[in-house]
Inverse folding.
């Protein structure tokens, strides 16, 4: 597609339920990143994929968070047993290759998650 | 350790005023890149500029200009003759080998341009 697409754009869920957030990167971009942005704060790195592999999962805040990517394309971020502190905007970005100093990341519009 | 500090949480100016957004960074690497991104109310982060550590030339793009000073570890962003459409949150970020090539983000500065 023309840009990074994320769905849903907004999600309200009850505490304790599981949610799945989807990211469609730019076609041909091998690297994909997930970030979390709490209200009024900067971006918090969660995980990145190079192809379908996630070499760095250190940013995932707890074992309730998981992510996968298939076909070097779509990625899904899953949050199990959601808690109120999970409320945030979840941003996905993709880049042509592994993010280096010569590449830039293109961001989606994010999924605003509200846990009530 | 790498760190990016944007000390200004929020700035509010009247349209047509000039405004400077500050960014101070820390890194032990001698080779690194600095970025500015704009996040309008729609939420999508928009890339503005990338600057490498070996190029200290200031850059101007229309009403936007960037002042990179290694001596003070700063990469400040100035908007000249601000417009309402410039209202957004602006993020400064750093990437280096020391950061494992992950973008290190500042907390952002919310810029409000009043008509």
């Amino acid at each position: 597609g023309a840009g990074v697409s994320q769905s849903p754009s907004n999600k309200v869920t009850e505490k304790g339920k599981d949610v799945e957030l989807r990211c469609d990167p730019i076609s041909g971009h091998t690297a994909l990143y997930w970030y979390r942005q709490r209200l009024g704060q900067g971006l918090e790195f969660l995980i990145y994929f190079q192809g379908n592999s996630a070499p760095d999962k250190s940013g995932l805040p707890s074992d309730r968070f998981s992510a996968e990517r298939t076909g070097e394309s779509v990625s899904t971020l899953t949050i199990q047993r959601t808690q109120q502190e999970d409320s945030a905007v979840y941003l996905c970005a993709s880049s042509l290759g592994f993010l280096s100093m010569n590449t830039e990341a293109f961001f989606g519009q994010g999924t605003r998650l509200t846990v009530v | 350790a790498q760190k990016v500090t944007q000390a200004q949480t929020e700035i509010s100016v009247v349209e047509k005023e000039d405004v400077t957004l500050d960014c101070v960074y820390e890194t032990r690497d001698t080779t690194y890149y600095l970025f500015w991104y704009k996040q309008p109310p729609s939420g999508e982060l928009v890339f503005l500029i990338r600057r490498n550590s070996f190029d200290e030339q200031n850059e101007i793009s229309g009403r936007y200009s960037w002042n990179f000073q290694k001596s003070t570890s700063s990469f400040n962003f100035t908007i000249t003759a601000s417009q309402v459409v410039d209202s957004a949150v602006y993020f400064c970020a750093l990437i280096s080998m020391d950061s494992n090539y992950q973008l290190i983000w500042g907390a952002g500065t919310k810029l409000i341009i009043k008509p």
Notes: The mean pLDDT of chain B is 91.
